[in-house]
Design goal:
Number of helices: 3
Radius of gyration: 17 Å
CATH topology: Jelly Rolls
CATH superfamily: Jelly Rolls
Shape: globular
Oligomer: single chain
CATH class: Mainly Beta
Helix content: under 10%
């Protein structure tokens, strides 16, 4: 017999069933794919300090007031919306401008199923509905490596004072 779901699962359901762990930038995650193919450091741009997997992918969940703190990585990252009760607002700083995009499944409400974050872009994410949750996926290519990850610190807000009111609550100091 096939089980039918009549409502969205809860954040706790996804955390338990997907064995998610706390992420250093906020939220919950689990790596689900790491390509066995390797890109040699010699074939990568010089800002990479070693070989990288071709691609990686994680599940990523936000709930309630939690957020993904401003950070950047040296690879392109694609966010995919899977399930939840709230869209995710992704805020990025691109060419000196603040860009806000909604990741969700209500296309008629300007939400997108996928959002691409270009390499070296500062960005953060939070839920629109602080009583909700959202399950997403993140695919990174060349594959994610913590050496390529930079979390924003105190200097970040000073560097972007023109956006202080929009970004100050999305930085872990």
């Amino acid at each position: 017999m096939i089980k039918k779901y009549t409502k969205l699962e809860t954040a706790k359901y996804w955390i338990n069933h997907l064995n998610l762990e706390k992420h250093p930038e906020g939220g919950w995650y689990k790596e689900i794919y790491r390509s066995s193919d390797i890109i040699s450091k010699l074939a990568l741009p010089p800002y990479f300090n070693g070989d990288r997997n071709c691609s990686t992918s994680i599940y990523y969940l936000l709930e309630s007031e939690d957020f993904s703190s401003f950070h950047r990585i040296k690879s392109d990252e694609i966010w995919h919306y899977y399930s939840g009760t709230s869209p995710i607002e992704i805020i990025s700083i691109v060419e000196g401008k603040l860009l806000k995009q909604l990741l969700g499944n209500k296309l008629n409400e300007d939400q997108q199923l996928q959002i691409v974050i270009p390499k070296n872009t500062w960005f953060a994410a939070h839920l629109i509905d602080k009583n909700g949750f959202a399950l997403a996926g993140c695919t990174v290519s060349p594959g994610f490596h913590f050496d390529d990850f930079e979390m924003a610190g105190k200097k970040f807000i000073h560097d972007f004072l023109q956006f202080e009111s929009e970004i100050k609550n999305l930085v872990r100091l």
